[in-house]
Amino acid sequence: MAWTTPKTWTTNEVVTAQDLNAQLRDNLLETMPAKASTNDGFFVSSAPNEIVERHLVTHRVNATEFTNSTSYTDLTSPGPTVTFESGTSAIVFSACQLAHQSAGCQSWMSWAISGATTRSAQDNTAILQDGVPIGTAGWVMGGVDFLTSLTPGINTITAKYKQAGGSGGPPITGSYFANRFLAVWPF
Amino acid sequence: MTWTTPFTAISGDTVTAAVFNAQVRDTMLEMEPAKAQNLGGYFVATGSKGLAERQFKSYLINRGESTTSTSYTDLTVKGPGVTVTTGTSAIVFLACRIEMSTSTNLGAASVTVSGASSVSASDDWACVLEGVDTASLHQNRRMSVHRFTGLTAGSNGFTMQYRVDGGTGNFQNREILVMPL
Is the complex ipTM higher than 0.85? Predict the structure, then answer.
């Protein structure tokens, strides 16, 4: 079934079963109540005169873990990771508690895309913490980005982490990450 | 066309073309599939029995630029900014990497509204950085979010602006995302 542009009815017109099936049945099957299938779904346009149900996805990893990697990497407990179905766009929200153990060290949280789309973690949309006194609990910070060039289909976003400016191993240098969160709002 | 409250059919009713046009054609034209035009659009109520399709818009400027202005101002490359059709409200997300020349001064990135509405940038919804050790010019990238209400419905422009309360602030990887309602 697909949406049919509602017709203009004329006086004395004979209303056929074909008319009612196209104008009422099939059109109503394209509306939100017919498309609604899962709790918390919301609706977006997937093409002209076409809507689809989407779902917000989230994941949290609370473990406090460390890296001294200067390129984006997984922590001991990878993620958080979310998998979702989308069109070409989605909003990514990220949050994390970041701390470092050496002066001059930067802590970065970003995310990579896999699945229908492939994109490595990038600095320009990352959360970045720098210049906070060492040995403290650090800061809880957030980030947001609107992706507009996704390949429609099933995509996965995985948080990635790095540090810059420090060296060596724990507990002296590098960055710690805790209470790590991702939310994706697909369109 | 407008939404017509569905009528209750009665046995023996004569169903006229006018009734069909109001009850079927015009009502269908107010429903989501008729309103759906843009990939990724979403639907909001514009009042009683009215729907409109809205779209998120965003813009990212990576270029880092500085200011010493203590009142909100544009940088050399203005923005980022987006123009969207809104009702009376919109949710705005902003993110920015901020670096200050002194640890005792703050740098702030906020949003101003223009077009159908006029709202000045304010600290109330800004990303703010202060108190960071300035050795090696530390940078932090963070975000803020605000819901603007009381807008004049129509075409509204949302543009990021910047200020410091002393010293020099550098702002880069500046991003705005607007959800019009």
Answer: no
Cα dihedral value B31, B33, B39, B42, nearest 10: 30
CB contact under 8 A, B39 and A32: no
Is A75 in contact with A176 (CB distance < 8 Å)? no
CA distance B24 to A21: 12
Cα gap A159→B161, rounded to integer Å: 30
**Which residues face B179 on adjacent strands?**
B91
Indicate the residue type of B169.
G
Amino acid, single-letter form, for residue A123: D
Residue A50 CA, chain-centre distance (Å), reads 22
End-to-end alpha carbon distance in chain B: 22
Please tell me the distance from the alpha carbon of residue B169 to that of residue B129, in angstroms, as a whole number: 10
Cα gap A184→B134, rounded to integer Å: 34
Beta carbon pairs, A and B, within 8 Å: 144
A72 touches A175 (CB < 8 A): no
- R_g over Cα of chain B: 23
Write the pLDDT tens digit of every residue in A9-65: 999 999 999 999 999 999 999 999 899 998 889 999 999 999 999 999 999 999 999
Name the DSSP class of B75: -
* CA-based nearest residue to A147, from A109, A187, A181: A187
Q: Is A165 left (phi over 0), alpha (psi -120 to 50) or beta?
A: left
Cβ distance B135 to A104 less than 8 Å, yes or no, reads yes
Amino acid at the residue B107: G
Distance of CA A2 to the CA centre of its chain: 29
CA gap B24, B34 in Å, rounded: 13
Taking the C-alpha atoms of residue B7 and residue A98, their distance in angstroms, rounded to an integer, is 60
Q: How confident is the model at residue B2 (pLDDT cuts 50, 70, 90)?
A: confident
Cα separation, B15 vs A101, whole angstroms: 78
pTM of the model as a whole: 0.88
Write out residues 22-61 of A within 8 Å (CB-CB) of B: 23-24, 27, 30-32, 42-51
